[in-house]
Amino acid sequence: MSSSQFSMPKLLKATQNFSPDMIIGHGDSFLLYKAHLSNGLTVAVKKLDPREFPGFREFRAEAQTLGKLLHPNIIKLLGYSSDGHFVYEYIERGDLQCLLHDSDNPLPWSTRLGIVRGVASGLAYLHGLKSPIVHRDIRAKNVLLDLEFQPHITSFGLARQIESSYVSTIDDGVMGYMPPEYLAGSNVATLRGDVYSFGILMLEIATAKWPNLPIMFDHKKMRIVEWARKMVMGDRQIEMMDSCIPIQDLDEDIVKKYFSIACSCSHEIARERPPMIEVVKLLNELSM
Question: Where is the Protein kinase domain (predicted)?
Answer without folding.
Answer: 18-288
